[in-house]
């Protein structure tokens, strides 16, 4: 069945997204959403059938929104920005700084289930396309295992995106801001340089 598309149905969905994304949002009820959306619980049930139906609609909306944004990112615009712009920063720019979607992503990915796994597959696929495009453009060097590289980079960007608030508090700068990204990237580079494999006995003999 196609999701409801009336103005009130979409307001219910967007209100549910904002409420569920909040701390403690897992306990959100039909009555909570109806009150915040200024509709009756009966109207919510008429559109979505149950609280599970509301969650399914929100999951589908978040997945479609993120997938569409990621598709836009695999372009010359992202490549022209160079390796200093992360997929997370570019995605946040398209979602909007006040979007509840990053917080909702955390819930989807941590809670798991079919929706969370499907979303990660979409994110990984977009990350893989971006990495491949950057290699073709000469922004990145070839990887011995492109799949592993895409998984690592996608996971890193997701961590920064969904943990942005506590990272900002601990770091003293937003990791997705220019200043914070510079601090973050410099430290990562230092860490990776310090993790060079030790010389073998054959190399030292």
UniProtKB/TrEMBL annotation:
**Residue span, HTH tetR-type domain:** 6-66
Q: Which InterPro entries match?
A: Homeodomain-like_sf, HTH-type_TetR-like_transc_reg, HTH_TetR, TetR_C_25
Q: Which residues bind DNA?
A: 29-48
**Species of origin:** Microbacterium schleiferi
UniProt-recorded name of the protein: TetR family transcriptional regulator
UniProt GO molecular function: DNA-binding transcription factor activity; transcription cis-regulatory region binding
Q: Which PANTHER family match?
A: HTH-TYPE TRANSCRIPTIONAL DUAL REGULATOR CECR, HTH-TYPE TRANSCRIPTIONAL REGULATOR RUTR
**DNA-binding keyword on record:** yes
For this UniProt record, give its keywords in alphabetical order, as a comma-separated list.
DNA-binding
């Amino acid at each position: 069945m196609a999701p409801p598309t009336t103005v009130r149905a979409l307001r219910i969905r967007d209100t549910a997204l904002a409420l569920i994304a909040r701390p403690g949002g897992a306990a959100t009820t039909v009555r909570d959403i109806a009150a915040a959306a200024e509709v009756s619980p009966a109207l919510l049930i008429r559109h979505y059938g149950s609280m599970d139906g509301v969650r399914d609609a929100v999951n589908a909306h978040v997945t479609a929104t993120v997938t569409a944004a990621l598709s836009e990112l695999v372009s010359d615009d992202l490549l022209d920005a160079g390796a200093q712009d992360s997929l997370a920063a570019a995605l946040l720019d398209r979602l909007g700084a006040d979007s509840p979607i990053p917080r909702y992503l955390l819930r989807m990915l941590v809670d798991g289930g079919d929706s969370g796994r499907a979303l990660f597959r979409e994110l990984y696929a977009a990350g893989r396309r971006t990495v491949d495009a950057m290699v073709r453009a000469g922004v990145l060097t070839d990887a011995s295992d492109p799949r592993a590289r895409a998984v690592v980079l996608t996971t890193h960007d997701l961590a920064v995106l969904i943990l942005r608030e506590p990272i900002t508090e601990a770091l003293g700068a937003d990791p997705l801001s220019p200043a914070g990204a510079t601090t973050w990237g410099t430290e990562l580079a230092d860490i990776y340089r310090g993790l060079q494999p030790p010389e073998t006995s054959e190399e030292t003999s």
